[in-house]
Amino acid sequence: MPDISVKPTAARWWLRLGIALTGLSAVAVMATPSVADGPKPPPDGARAQFAYVGNLIGGTISVIDTATNTVTTTLNTGSTDAVAATPDGARLYTTSLVSDLVRVIDTATNTVLTTVPVGDAPEGVAITPDGDRAYVTNSRDNNVSVIDTATNTVTTTIGVGGLPIGVAITPDGTRAYVANVGGGVSVIDIATNTVTTTIPISAADAPFGVAIKPDGTRAYVANVGSDSVSVVDTATNTVLTTVGVGDRPQNVAFTPNGARAYVTNQNSDNVSVIDTTTNTVLTTIAAGDGPFGVAITPNGARAYVTNENSDNVSVVDTATNTVLTTVGVGNGPRGVAIVSPPSSGPKGKVVSKKPVNVYEEPTRKSEVTGSLSPKQVVTIECKANEKDDDRALGGGDDGIWYRLAEEPRGWVESKYVKVLDHVRVPSCPDQTA
Fold first, then answer.
1. pLDDT range class, residue 422, cuts 50, 70, 90
2. Which of 333, 335, 315 is nearest to 325 (CA)?
3. Do the Cβ atoms of 125 and 94 come closer than 8 Å?
4. Is the pLDDT of residue 370 over 60?
5. pTM, entire model
6. Which of 168, 169, 180, 330 has its CA 20 to 30 A from that of 191?
7. What is the CA radius of gyration of the chain?
8. Distance between start and end Cα atoms, the chain
9. What's the CATH class of domain 8-339?
């Protein structure tokens, strides 16, 4: 078994929590899902963005406003490890490996809606691109719980390898990749919820965190035992190459264009930046003490790195690969996700009486890319003043442009709908077009 010990401070935390596992005394950790997994949220600026940070020891979630890099809210949730948001940003799913449950948080109000009992020592969590299901790794049970997000109940449990930690889902929503510290990466067919293959990465490597490249062609697996990242071809589920990184790599996140992968190295206190074309390390960024989780903003401009031992978050400028600032958070920060919560303002609906054209963008009206069927519902956000509506893209006498959002959830990127003859009223009830 490789030496995969952590720094003394982190080790003491685990012993106090009673999470030490035979032969793997301090490896019960999770992979933070990248914002690059699945569909991208609305473009930066459309809605306020926050970094939600799970604090394992502090029993809280710190909410960082990414515009000011200050903590605006602290949620007293109980011990929190992994965090993952639904594609619409409305819900946050967080794991508690101490309590063996998943908490579901309403991001508009920052309150816990419900808890979902899962297996023993849940660590990682990832949500399907359609937002319908959450996949949770249960490290002591060697399985994955599948949660129906409509009912927030576990619908099935899938056996995987030994000590599953990281989990990531392909952008097309067809497969989930689970990193097992005991050896191998399990590939789950989401349609059938069965393991179709196991990618042979050894127990000596101790595969730990996993992320999927935005185009879905590669899975990058952080190997805590061999200080490396395995690059997996998702078409063949074979390892193409291995990239050496820092000491005890934990998690991986991609820039939205997939050009670079950011890898947290917990024992060397830094972040390796991998060029995904050449699969070489471009540079190494000094972080805080014990960097663990990493998430990148949808525009790719910033990376947020949780430092587990120094109780803070390093904010990295990805253009210069330097730390811009450090934000203090709770005790033992681990998981991090970038979230654009829905506005808490009133909402309305537009129901079309006839087909409505969908355009690539408002300024290119001749390029019709699709249409809405009669009576198809398009959810819009309504406010008393049209100027304040962050989804209104302009308009005129013949209608108002809105970004197209499919019911019941989810953004369709770069698609816009023109709602004809829409009459806007201050109270913004349901309207017909």
1. very low
2. 315
3. yes
4. no
5. 0.74
6. 180
7. 22
8. 66
9. mainly beta
Rounded to the nearest angstrom, the gap between the alpha carbon of residue 159 and the centroid of all alpha carbons in its chain is 23
Q: What is the 3-state secondary structure (H, E, C) of 336-356?
A: EEEECCCCCCCEEEEECCCCE
Residue showing tokens 């995987």: 160
Secondary structure class of 388 (helix, strand, coil):
helix
Give strand pairing partners of 302: 317
Instruction: Tell me how far apart the 2 most distant CA atoms of the chain are, in Å.
Output: 71
- Does residue 365 have a pLDDT over 80? no
Residue 177: pLDDT band by 50, 70, 90 thresholds?
A: very high
Of 128, 127, 108, 72, nearest to 347 by C-alpha is 108
- Comparing 6 with 136, the larger pLDDT belongs to 136
3-state DSSP: the chain helix, strand, coil percent, rounded to 5? 5, 50, 45
- Give the separation between CA 286 and CA 283, rounded to whole angstroms: 10
Residue whose C-alpha is closest to residue 203's, from 169, 179, 239: 179
- pLDDT-derived band at 360 (thresholds 50, 70, 90) equals very low
Distance from C-alpha of 94 to C-alpha of 114, rounded to nearest angstrom: 11
Residues forming CATH 2.130.10.10 domain(s) in the chain:
8-339
Contacts of 260 (CB under 8 A, 6+ apart): 254, 273, 274, 275, 276, 282, 318
In DSSP notation, 23-88 reads TBTT----PPPPTTSSS--SPTTSS--EEEEEETTTTEEEEEETTTTEEEEEE--SS---EEE-TT
pLDDT (0 to 100) of residue 19: 34
From 86, 125, 73, select the one nearest 102 (Cα to Cα).
125
Distance CA 92, CA 261 (A): 24
